[in-house]
Design brief:
The chain is of the alpha/beta class and 270 residues long. The protein has helices at residues 62-71, 82-87, 89-97, 117-135, 153-161, 181-195, 207-222, 240-251, 260-263, and strands spanning 21-25, 32-33, 48-54, 77-79, 101-102, 143-144, 165-167, 171-172, 198-203, 226-232.
Amino acid sequence: MAQGKPAAPACANPNALGVSRVVEIDTTGGPGFGFEHFRQHDFLRRNEVVLTFDDGPWEATTPSVLKALADECVRATFFPIGKHATYYPEVLKQVADAGHTIGNHTWSHQNLSRKKFAEAKTEIELGIAAVKWAAGDRPIAPFFRAPVLKHPPEIVTYLGERNIGIFSTDLDSFDFTMRTPERIIESVMKKLEKHGKGIVLMHDFQKHTAAATPELLKQFKEKGYKVVHMTAKNPLNSLPEYDEMLNKQAKLPTLSTRPTSSVVRTIETQ
């Protein structure tokens, strides 16, 4: 098994949708995927689907998505926000331990096309450092998705130099605009019916997406769609200077050096 490939837990459901195919992606040179922006690499066969989730990890919703995927023995690719990873590192570890692939979605979900190059680079690298820290000893993949799918040319070049693959999408669910799980399911299934296959973009941060995922997987199975899981040939390492920057941000020093026991004390219990 390649170092950057998450282990697949055993499937206990004999009727599960499952994963029909696992692909390993060599991100040398920063290849791009997703027909919305990149058309060079078309690796999906008809009726094949790649599931991707952005904006997590989030304590209130990501575990529900993970359960739905586990119930159907499906694996996906998650593009977490660095800040969110520092909020909920244990949730991100759950994502990794379930065998999903973990990429990156910047530090704070800024539109990189509105940033100077140095600022955009920091957004990317600080996000990588945060996700790497939150994942602990679990490998993360050199997979990157830009917020609002905006990746200016200089960022594409930089990611190529870092050997990080760039992911757009084939089918954007636009789940963040929809107020019910039913509308999300309808959006995805209509687009799949039209295109026949695709990399699907959703958000594990969204409560309606979490609620929609079980039924969406059920409809995939009923209509004969097969899930492909993406893994990376090699893991991604963070850069030391951004690890240090993350450490400084996380510590948030104040003038007080008193121990917690002298600052906070229990005055009432039930």
